[in-house]
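Contributing new complexes? Match this layout with iron/sulfur cluster.
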Amino acid sequence: MPVSTDLDILGSRVENVGFVDHAVDPALDLYKEIDLLKKRKNAILLAHYYQEPAIQDVADFIGDSLGLSRQAAETSADIIVFAGVHFMAETAKILCPEKKVILPDLNAGCSLADTCPADEFREFCDQYPDHLVMSYINCSAAVKARSDIICTSTNAEHLLRMIPEPQPVIFAPDRNLGRWLERKTGRRMKIWDGVCIVHETFSERKLLALKIEFPAAKVLAHPECEEAVLRHADFVGSTSAIRRFAREDQGHSFIIATEEGILHQMRKDSPHKRFIPAPPESGCNCSQCPHMRLNTLEKLYNCMEYELPEIHMEESVRVRALRPIERMIEMSTGVS
Ligand code: 13P
Ligand code: SF4
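Output block (do not edit by hand):
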């Protein structure tokens, strides 16, 4: 059973640290059991594209950060089971304080969110009091609470273009997404120097070698990748945009520069097409997010059975973090 000490993760107070460490009977059909738990508890299971395929297959909704936030905001379920990382489940809790929000492993954080501690971020913003603060959803509730508007990789360009010039803007925490937005819109911003450990490991050198090996393959990349990788991309977009591009494009082979969990849905969408994960610099499994991959089917089952671990946060932080998220949702109607 879980450890039950309190801990501060990313600035918000959470209990029941870790995950439910209870041996699962290997004879159980976990797909069936998880489905039964969903019905019995009126729970909705939301999964990000970066989850392992088995978790994606049992989810009610699979999506990107924006799609998952929208689902959380609209659900009538009593329990939101979030198969993703902490900031995603936390966003669901900010939107739905009356609901129980659980995730299989509370240690599933985000290296990018960790690069932006709330106290340092507040000091940074205070230096530029005339700046509007736009934060990528991959950040803590405390950072959201200091922001004017939240964005995801799906709506960031759309939202930035809606902020009238010459309003100066702070963008945090992803420097690669920030710089990509600058190149797309021609607008200069004050950018926080954060980076994702998964997307920064893709190797330009190995990508170029792969392009020689597969000359017809199109490169599809997430804007969290370094500029050196993005400059070789045929298409740059969020996970859902990359998935849509691959489904609708006439091409037959694609090199994918983002977390490789996305390949599961792409292969289901287009079984006749070839999807090649972009290579990281070393021979590691670095194109799998180590945080996302902490969630397993067994932990998911235990989490639903015991309704633990649960997301909690201070109400004052939640209320301040809510407005910039609501603003994002309102201002990106029709964007997907
Ligand atoms: P999406 O907005 O595409 O879901 O990206 C989330 C993420 O964590 C990328 O690393
Ligand atoms: Fe965070 Fe990177 Fe993992 Fe996305 S892939 S959740 S940005 S560490």
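Reviewers usually confirm one structural detail per submission. For this one: Confidence is low (pLDDT under 50) at residues 2-16.
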